[in-house]
Amino acid sequence: MIRRIALGVFAAIGVLTLLLAAGGAIAAWLLLPRAPSLPDRIVLTLDLREGVDEAPAQEPLDLLGLTTRPTFTDVIMALDQAGRDSRVKGLVAQLSGEGPGFAQSQELRAAVTRFRSQGKFAYAYADSFGEFGPGTRGYYLATAFEQIHLQPIGALGLTGILLETPLLRGLLDRLGILPSGDKRGRYKSAAEMFTETELSPAAKEELEALADSLDQQVKEGIGAGRTLEPARVAKLIDDGPYLASEAKAEGLVDHLGYWDEVVDQAESRAGHGSELVAVADYARTVPPAGSNAPVIALVRGVGQIQSGKSDYGAASGWIMGADTVAGALAAAADDPAVKAILFRIDSGGGSVVASETIGHEVRRAVEHGKPVIVSMGDVAASGGYWIAMDASKIVAEAGTLTGSIGVFAGKPVLSQLWEDVGVNWGRVQRGANADMWSTDVDYDARGRARLQAFLDQIYGAFVGGVARGRSLPEAEVQKAAQGRVWTGAQAKGLGLVDELGGFTRALELARAAIGVPADRPVELRVFPPRRTPLEEVFDLLHGGSNGLDAVSVWLRLLRPGGLSAPPIAIR
């Protein structure tokens, strides 16, 4: 009887789950946003205050398709389409002090420039470019617009470039934690976050070179956008930050006012009957390519690289799962309709074996005649470069952080911490190296020798892979390697990337690789395809995300095989 009741309860729960899933899917379908009808005169609006996600958002409503947040590539393609659309008269964008990263900002600057070249106007508005904080990056983006509007009580935090990286060794010493491990590459400074209290000479040299490159790019961009000489831009940066009135007096902004006033001005310029349309809504109205259009696959690789499936966690951020991304590349490579693959990467690295799993599918696609064009976002370094190195072509923005051809591995040794807090660990062992990865003891001579062997193999494979993929002598790769991070502009000179540009340029190269002229439409097909609302409902009912907590992310940075680029904050 009890067993029968239990089975009945489980059956009822199963039926209820199915009903909830079906009901959720039906509700999602009914609530799915429909493509809006567009007016004859359009002013596009675009909110860039918090940046734009490279991959589709992962909040429940986004997963079910009930919101319309576009991806970064959606925004770029929508702006290019709008430039050719006679109904679209202009663009008004809301900015802030930070927003998109440097490489994304450069892609957006280029997209706005193309938009304006079609005879459209473009206004940038900010409540403040940094409120008691930095605003150089946001202002750099704004200078691509025809006019810059700033709230009268706002500020312009034009203060230049600051690169910062945390150094935790002093804290770890206080806690009784010994970071133990090694690296290959003189500049592979990610581990210095745990091992040093001051920047090493190599890390200092690397950061100085990065700062010089980014500083030059920012000054050139601001100078071109505001028609200012380089020396004048340098002086303005050194004299910042500015009150709104001071920014206006120096010619750094055009108007002081409020959002509603900017909107009124834009609608007046667009003409009678003009209406505001969000870029996200406009993107949904772009007609699909015809059924005979050549297909280019779009595969996105975003976040820390790990084995398993791609995911998003509140603490961990984006996870690039090797199973998901390698599977998408394999599916695109094996699909006879797909003529080329556009691989968009935004990642500072992660697991070696997961990176190689993805990189293998890039090689396989190229070897089987499917061109793979890589488009790098803000960061494509370390493991993010590993998965790109065998592509047919690599495109990066001047401000992309890339390279970091090196490896580090190790573990936190907690024996002193346990002694300080009065915790003892009992242990029995079989096998001379059974305790090699234990965080309770340091490596002994035998274990450290094995660690060195792993590092030698990985670094050799990385350098050899870059030489193979980029058709460079290994001696030249060694000069560019050593774990050093480069900007895209620097990497171009070293042969690590083929061209400077963004997603649009990468798409042009994909077209060229398969002989499709610019005036012929292509279908950009996303791999893997977006899951249906029913699939998402089932996933949500069964726990959804397997996001990582902060501690596990921290430990992953020290575990063997780490390829991560250094955690550099750019302001």
How would you portray this structure in words?
Helices cover 43% and strands 19% of the residues. With 571 residues, the chain is an alpha/beta fold. Strands 11, 15, 16, 17, 18, 20, 21 and 22 form an eight-stranded mixed sheet that branches. The chain is globular.
Q: How would the blueprint of this fold be written?
A:
Layout: H1 2-31, E1 42-47, H2 60-63, H3 72-84, E2 88-95, H4 102-117, E3 121-126, H5 136-142, E4 147-150, E5 155-156, E6 163-164, H6 169-175, E7 178-184, H7 192-195, H8 201-226, H9 230-239, E8 242-243, H10 244-249, E9 255-256, H11 259-270, E10 275-278, H12 279-283, E11 295-302, E12 304-306, E13 311-313, E14 317-321, H13 322-334, E15 338-347, H14 352-367, E16 372-381, H15 383-386, E17 393-396, E18 401-403, E19 407-413, H16 415-420, H17 445-470, H18 474-480, E20 485-487, H19 488-494, E21 499-500, H20 503-513, E22 523-527, H21 533-541, H22 550-556, E23 569-570
Helix pairs in contact: 1-21, 3-4, 4-5, 5-8, 8-9, 13-14, 17-18
What is the gist of this entry?
The chain is of the alpha/beta class and 571 residues long. The chain is 43% helix and 19% strand.
Number of distinct helices: 22
Distance between the termini: 68 Å
Question: For the CA atoms, what is the radius of gyration?
Answer: 26 Å
Secondary structure class reads alpha/beta
What percentage of residues falls in helices of 4 or more residues? 40-55%
> Which outline best applies?
globular
Query: What is the typical, i.e. mean, pLDDT?
Result: 87
Number of strands: 23
Uncertain regions: pLDDT < 50 for 5+ in a row?
9-17, 25-32, 60-64, 544-561
Q: How is the main sheet built?
A: 8 strands, mixed
Strand content: 15-25%
